Amino acid sequence: xxxxxxxxxxxxxxxxxxxxxxxxxxxxxxxxxxxxxxxxxxxxxxxxxxxxxxxxxxxxxxxxxxxxxxxxxxxxxxxxxxxxxxxxxxxxxxxxxxxxxxxxxxxxxxxxxxxxxxxxxxxxxxxxxxxxxxxxxxxxxxxxxxxxxxxxxxx
Length: 155
Description:
It is a single chain. The protein is of the alpha/beta class. Helix content is 35%, strand content 17%. The protein has six helices and five strands; from the N terminus they run H-E-E-H-E-H-E-H-E-H-H. The chain has helices at 4-18, 55-63, 88-95, 114-120, 131-137, 139-147, and strands at 31-35, 41-46, 71-76, 99-104, 124-127. It has a five-stranded mixed beta sheet, sandwiched between helices. Strand 3, helix 3 (88-95) and strand 4 (99-104) form a beta-alpha-beta unit. The longest helix is centred in the N-terminal third of the chain and has 15 residues, at 4-18.
């Protein structure tokens, strides 16, 4: 069951993700908030540019040791592959995060599977919190990956 604190943290992650609009293509915009084991904000981050560290990495760096036993709120399922950066799912595991709440599953076949990796390592991974809001902020990227075409707004 999602709590008010979960919703507040995910809304903050969605707001952080929006800060990356226009600078992450061809990658998605992603925001992340890490709360420590006591439920206090320990770190925040967003994907700032293509090829740069992902949101989870920025948030984990800001949180430091306070991430251990805490919860990460991410607008997109943590990636599970190595490209220009390493897999975020593994970084969350190594940081000792106990729970990961993500809004939208990653539809990219090369990157998906982060939730399974987290669960296999004993991390609680939960999907769907504020999914509609997170999807709206990532509509262009999600349309491109899911439908193989650009996102178009007709007026």
